[in-house]
Amino acid sequence: MTPQPAYLLHKRPYRETSALVELLTLDHGRVRAVARGVQRPGSRSRAALQPFAPLHLTWSGQGELKRLSLMETRAPAAMLAGEGLLCGLYANELLTRLLPVELPVGDVFAFYAAALEALPRPEARAGALRSLERALLEALDAEPRFCTPDGQALDPQSRYVFVSEERAFVPGEPGIDGRTLKLLANGDWREPGLAGPAKAVARAALAPLLGSRPLRSREWMRQLAARRRRES
């Protein structure tokens, strides 16, 4: 096969010298594979197969679990630390948890790559993550419908809460005002002042997909925020 652009989402040891890996690929979406010998000391593949590094990969196999046969880095890994690193881990965990195996998600791949470029910059993180979350929701046919359950337009002067079963909004408090929701419906998730509402809508839409098992990366983020409050 032609080498496929990819990113490593998750890796864990397998047998003595191999690893089981979860990958985000350009044309094949999430791919699960065995990377043989990658845990061996001195392995060139071990150095290449790192999170947040753009890769070129090939694999073989007909079942759900593939076998990697070529691993090359295309560029250095994104330099993430602190909150930026936790945001990257959140993106990886979210895609690993929610993407079906081998569902083509070219837009998700593009927004993930863009997020890795944005995460080193604190002012760009929120917008990049919201764009990635929205692309993921669209790929899963679970994006919010910015209307009432019966398809009526939202009143800019009213406040609404999201109902996950309907993927729509109903009047309620405290809620989000209809004007803000209309801006989000137009794709203005990066506009100043919309970070909080955009995060709330994305989290509400993702919640039924994630189920009751919490994301570890969110807990790490809460711990970091608590530590910063204690130190301030």
Automatic annotation (TrEMBL):
Pfam families recorded: RecO_C (PF02565), RecO_N (PF11967)
All residue ranges annotated as the DNA replication/recombination mediator RecO N-terminal domain in the record: 4-73
InterPro entries assigned: DNA_rep/recomb_RecO_N, NA-bd_OB-fold, RecO, RecO_C
Keywords per UniProt: DNA damage, DNA recombination, DNA repair
HAMAP family, per database record: RecO
Family named by the database record: Belongs to the RecO family.
Function: Involved in DNA repair and RecF pathway recombination.
PANTHER family in UniProt: DNA REPAIR PROTEIN RECO
Name of the protein in question: DNA repair protein RecO
Organism: Halomonas koreensis
Lineage: Bacteria, Pseudomonadati, Pseudomonadota, Gammaproteobacteria, Oceanospirillales
